[in-house]
TrEMBL record:
GST C-terminal domain span: 85-197
Family assignment from sequence similarity: Belongs to the GST superfamily.
Protein name: Glutathione S-transferase family protein
Organismal lineage: Bacteria, Pseudomonadati, Pseudomonadota, Gammaproteobacteria, Oceanospirillales
Domain (GST N-terminal) ranges: 1-80
Length: 197
């Protein structure tokens, strides 16, 4: 099973982290993003969007980190990671949506501006980040994990860009529950870091 990967990408890290936590073996294929290799074969053939990560498992090729997390959880991990009931899966899915929307366009976008020089609206990103971090802090003040009272792919999806918020000029000093939650994830057996964490 091969993952077309970019080390500083939080989306790629979500997949690497989940695989490490569950003992799933991945062959990492580093993609030279600056050289535009994500827009060339074989990556563009596997994902016409030209984005990373891309997972290839035999005849199956998947784009989008959240789709990959669901696939790996359902096919290779225990049911705890994605849940067995419709209610559990929906609870997890709502956090995947938060990751793809508010987290990506808040702390994720602020990081793209500061760390990589993207031409995005930093003020808007900071406003989105403030709102979502407040909501996340409130949730984690009463819950140890995002969903189902246990670690799930929701935690793997949301944590990276929250933990990397400092690279977008966002401090987590006012969010102790978020900091404790990040610490719990880092304490899970099999945890692997990425640059910036």
């Amino acid at each position: 099973m091969k993952l077309y990967d970019l080390e500083p990408s939080g989306n790629c890290y979500k997949v690497r982290l989940f695989a490490a936590l569950t003992g799933i073996k991945l062959e990492l294929e580093a993609v030279d993003f600056l050289a535009g290799m994500h827009k060339q074969s074989p990556v563009i053939d596997l994902n016409p969007w030209g984005e990373l990560p891309v997972l290839v498992d035999g005849e199956i090729s998947l784009r989008d980190s959240h789709a990959i997390l669901i696939y790996l959880a359902k096919r290779y991990a225990s049911a705890d990671w994605y849940g067995e009931t419709a209610a559990e899966q929906a609870e997890i899915q709502q956090w995947l949506a938060t990751s793809a929307n508010e987290i990506q366009h808040g702390p994720g976008a602020a990081r793209l501006v500061d760390k990589f020089g993207y031409d995005l609206d930093k003020g808007r990103a900071l406003g989105t980040a403030s709102r979502v971090l407040g909501l996340l802090e409130s949730h984690l003040s009463n819950n140890r994990w995002l969903a189902c009272d246990r670690p799930t792919i929701a935690d793997c999806a949301v944590m990276p860009y929250v933990a990397l918020a400092w690279e977008g000029g966002i401090t987590l000093d006012d969010y102790p529950a978020i900091q404790h939650w990040i610490g719990r994830i880092k304490a899970l057996p099999g945890f692997i870091p990425m640059s910036g964490l």
